[in-house]
Design a protein that fits this description.
Pfam families: Glyoxalase. Keywords: Coiled coil. This is VOC domain-containing protein. The protein is α/β, with parallel strands linked by helices and 169 residues long. The protein contains three helices and eight strands; from the N terminus they run βαββββαβββα. The strands form two sheets. Strands 1-4-3-2 form a four-stranded mixed sheet, covered by helices on one side. Strands 5-8-7-6 form a four-stranded mixed sheet, with helices on one face. It is globular. The C terminus is likely disordered.
Length: 169
């Protein structure tokens, strides 16, 4: 598998916010992220959050009133997706929090993935799914992995390649 830029993993995503405080509340109390220290050299309002192996950097908009409004939840729009253990529990929690959402289902060869889509306070789309049940099938190979297995296997191949390069022949 080619890795022309020698990438290791996704580090973070940045989201522009109308209110950093409202977005921090949402990402901490709804999605379970943890606030982390930002570099003191950053001279603008924002917050850094971390969980699930990814960072979210919230950036205060210079024009909060001019930010685009996203009234309609469209599963085909840009979004970030999180896997969950129990989609019914997530749906129940969204109902308790009175967060509007849209349900969707994907099917591939008798395997079903349930999806819930909703917006953060600034209209960024969030998807919660049980996506790990659908296999990741590289188009160039005949191997099949689940999402978690695919990432693990890529890392193992990378580490094995590094070890092979260290061993003199």
């Amino acid at each position: 598998m080619a890795n022309p830029l020698q990438l290791k993993s996704l580090n973070h995503i940045s989201l522009v916010c109308g209110s950093v405080e409202k977005s921090v509340d949402f990402y901490v109390n709804v999605l379970g992220f943890i606030p982390i220290k930002r570099p003191s050299s950053l001279d603008f309002n924002g917050a850094w959050l971390f969980n699930y192996g990814i960072g979210i950097h919230l950036l205060q908009s210079n024009d909060p009133e001019g930010m685009p409004k996203h009234a309609h939840i469209n599963p085909k729009d840009n979004h970030i997706s999180f896997q969950c253990e129990n989609i019914a529990a997530v749906e129940n929690k969204l109902q308790q929090l009175k967060i509007e959402y849209v349900k969707s289902k994907v099917e591939e060869s008798g395997i079903y993935v349930d999806q819930l889509f909703f917006h953060d306070p600034d209209g960024s789309m969030i998807e919660i799914c049980n996506c790990d049940s659908i296999p990741v099938v590289p188009l160039s190979e005949d191997k099949v992995w689940s999402c978690s297995r695919f990432n693990c296997n890529i890392q193992n191949q990378h580490h094995q390649h590094q070890i092979q390069q260290m061993i003199p022949m």
